[in-house]
Amino acid sequence: MLKEKLDELAQMMADHMARPFPPGFRGLDVEGQDMVLLDADVYGYAAVVREGRLSEQHRAGLTRLTSAFAKVLPAIDNEYAAEYYTHVRDMAVLAAEIESLREK
Q1: How many alpha carbons fall within 13 Å on the CB side of residue 17?
Q2: Band of the pLDDT at 28, cuts 50, 70, 90?
Q3: In sequence order, which residues have a C-beta less than 8 Å from that of residue 49 and are 6 or more positions away?
Q4: 3, 33, 5: which is closest to 90 by C-alpha?
Q5: What is the C-alpha to C-alpha distance for residues 5 and 1, in angstroms, rounded to an integer?
Q6: Which end of the chain is more exposed for a tag (fewer CB within 10 A), N or C?
Q7: Which residues pair with 34 in a beta bridge?
Q8: Can you tell me the distance from the alpha carbon of 88 to that of 92, in angstroms, rounded to the nearest whole number?
Q9: What CA–CA distance (Å, rounded) separates 67 from 64?
Q10: Is the Cβ–Cβ distance between 58 and 45 less than 8 Å?
Q11: Cα 64 to Cα 27: distance, rounded to the nearest angstrom
């Protein structure tokens, strides 16, 4: 089960890198969240999860980012950007799920 989830995360990350960043979102804050940092931070946490377990501090950071999407996604009124960031959220959720599987 863990291997399948890791493979899924790797595919999501590859898909993400193949997509262009949403136009107009560089330097943009949505609900107090810098959209470039949100994207980069989630990708970074996902990369670490693929390599092994997160530290306690990183787990807290991933949880915080995952929660940020509840405010950010409804505030995005651009269809492509909403789709893009939904994919980023799903990557964060999967990374957190993998981390939970490792704790068992």
Answers
A1: 9
A2: very high
A3: 9, 62, 95, 98, 99
A4: 5
A5: 6
A6: C
A7: 29
A8: 6
A9: 5
A10: yes
A11: 20
Nearest to 63 by CA among 55, 74, 51: 55
Q: Which residues pair with 30 in a beta bridge?
A: 33
pLDDT digits (tens, 9 = 90+) for 32-78: 999 999 999 999 999 999 999 999 999 999 999 999 999 999 999 99
* Residues 21 and 78 sit within 8 Å (Cβ to Cβ): no
Q: Return the biggest CA–CA distance within the chain.
A: 42
Question: 64: how many CB neighbours lie within 10 A of its CB?
Answer: 10
**What token pair was written down for 82?**
């909403």
Instruction: Return the structure tokens found at 61.
Output: 């950071």
* Helix 79-103 / helix 56-75 crossing angle, nearest 10 deg: 150
Chain center to CA of 51: 16
What's the CA gap between 59 and 100, in Å, rounded? 10
Q: What is the DSSP letter of 52?
A: S
